Amino acid sequence: MPNSESNTKLIYSPSPVPSQRLSRLWHLGRATGELAVGVGLKGLIELARNHPQAQAARIQISAGHARRFAERLAELRGAVMKLGQLMSMDADLLTPEVSAALGDLRERAAPMPLSQLVEVLTDAYGRDWDRLFRRFEFTPIAAASIGQVHRAETRDGRTLALKIQFPGVRASIDGDIANLGLIVRALGLGPQGIDVRPFLEEARRQLHREADYEAEAEALERYRAQLGDDPDLGVPAVHRDLTRPQILAMDLAAGVPIDRLAEPEYRCAERDRAAALLMRLTLRELFEFGLVQTDPNLANYLYDRASGRIILLDFGATVPLGPQLVGCYRQLAQALIQGDRLGIRDAAIALGYVGAHDPPNQIAALLDLLELAAEPLRSPGVYDFGSSDLFERVYRQGRMLFQSGVFSSAPAPETLFVHRKLMGSFMLARRLRARVELAKLAELSVTLCGIPS
Question: Does 1 fall in a domain?
């Protein structure tokens, strides 16, 4: 969620967050209806199931339906809005109309009414909350799925970004996950043979962590300590005296969302450098920090052109990884880089991607998919993400395998968020049309970074 001064335009009118599960299910049903009407329900299900007729097609929706679909998600905020943000990550699977509408969800939601904002501030700081500030801007500079950001200046001269949580969002998480599970089952969107309930439960737990701003403050400080005094990357400092469970106070960061680098005013060298920095950071998170910020929302990275620094935001989705899991990923990465098919198999079994006693053809199909996905790790020199169709190839092959019901195993639910981060890193490089020596970065990271203790 950006907290810069450059992002001040909001496209949605203030509205309260629907709080009751039935109310939110009704709104979610309307959003799903907008999507189903726009693409056709049959086409939607075919796309979700990777039907051959839909494999090469984009989601076809009119501009009006796309706008209304995004508006429904923006009104709901919370878990379902995060779903829309994830859908927006890759424009090549969407028409320009859908991509533009859902792209707004990465930076903006419907802000809360002024009366609700004052209520949250009063609950957090007391009735005289305004005496804490020399200046408080009631118009948010950003609004996303769980909260909105306001610029404030304290009496002692600090200029802050206050991330203020939407009332009712935390209480809506359990119902949202249950409603999404209902939609998945009703439309048959889950992979055959795999129980999606553990993954929905892990998503529920993660969203509860994201809605605890004091826990996010701790994650932000831990991550900031791991990053250290990096000249290219920065993390805002937390201001503990003004941080509460529903308000996170931190330094105001300058910059524009990172995907703006795709615009013509920015040079190719800037895009390549930014993508390389963030891909290297992803590898460090996994193999050195043992602490992964798993939200791939592109608005969570600000680019300050004046300094060339990238500012990292939103640590609610930060997940610590144990040494054993990190070791499994290291084993997999090393085997993929070296083309060691047996090593890939051993790592895939250790991670739960396949079972040791699964039929050989099923194991082989999964190993083929992993080797395909690792194409940038094995490509010598610079990998051109902008011209690559790797995502489509992996998407088609993966959906075909997992929807076929041939696999009886599923990885541990906590890997869901690691995969989300890895996918987000790929999508960022692709969105920026960047060229990155990923094979060199990966080999150095896997070889040199010690396993966290």
Answer: no
